[in-house]
Specification:
Helices cover 72% and strands 3% of the residues. By secondary structure, the protein is mainly alpha-helical. The protein has a two-stranded antiparallel sheet. Strand 1 and strand 2 form a beta hairpin. Helix 5 crosses helix 9 and helix 7 packs across helix 9. It is elongated. The model has no long low-confidence stretch (mean pLDDT 86).
């Protein structure tokens, strides 16, 4: 499918979607160099800066890899697989540690400050998360799981904590994707207990539920790294 000339509005987003589509459809296989910047400019009918910004965004998400002086290559077929490739080892451990700090206190605050509307949102997101996991919609699951954890923090109605957590959303989504190497283990991580504790306004239990699965992920990561030594 050839690339099409884009409309004037939202040029960068349109170019991102077209480039992403070429990757996910397999038109540009993993490891292959994509067309040069001048070629993309001609095919898409946009300026160099627009192409450059779109490529930079896809490189940041892990789909593409820019090699200075050589070109841009396909690195992964989706943002999720790109996240798994990009976030691992010590970096993944650090993200999980920061998540633990923020999510445990976020759950504690949520239990004290949540509203009925907050609970309804948590339950709806949790249902979506579990449905995505059952249907093996990995990319959707990673996004929905991260959205659920943001909603838990938001239930605490601490604006600063919420904005700090929201600022880490990309890294958090990547950490979810990077811990999906074992789908059977992912099935075991239930978040109903977090919602039930928040609904019961049991701050200590909510904190323990939020802490438990993250400690388990950190332990699994430590064992995996030890086995690789």
């Amino acid at each position: 499918m050839p690339l099409a000339t884009t409309r004037r509005a939202g040029l960068v987003d349109q170019v991102i979607e077209q480039l992403r589509g070429a990757v996910t459809r397999g038109e540009w296989p993993i490891g292959e160099r994509i067309p040069t910047e001048p070629e993309l400019v001609e095919q898409l009918g946009v300026g160099r800066n627009t192409v450059r910004e779109a490529v930079r965004a896809l490189a940041h998400s892990g789909l593409l890899e820019v090699r200075q002086g050589d070109g841009t290559y396909v690195r992964a077929t989706s943002e999720v697989s790109g996240a798994i490739r990009r976030l691992c080892g010590a970096e993944l451990r650090e993200v999980l540690q920061v998540r633990r700090l923020m999510e445990v206190e976020g759950a504690r605050l949520a239990a004290a400050a949540r509203t009925e509307e907050d609970l309804a949102e948590l339950r709806e997101l949790l249902d979506r998360r579990d449905a995505d996991l059952r249907s093996k919609q990995v990319a959707e699951f990673a996004r929905t799981d991260a959205e659920f954890h943001l909603a838990v923090v938001r239930c605490g109605h601490n604006t600063l904590l919420t904005e700090l957590y929201r600022g880490l959303s990309e890294a958090i989504t990547a950490s979810v994707a990077a811990t999906l190497d074992d789908p059977e283990h992912a099935q075991e991580i239930k978040h109903r207990g977090i919602v039930e504790a928040i609904a019961a306004q049991d701050a200590d239990r909510a904190a323990a539920e939020a802490c438990g699965f993250l400690d388990e992920l950190l332990d699994r990561l430590a064992r995996k790294q030890q086995n690789e030594l």
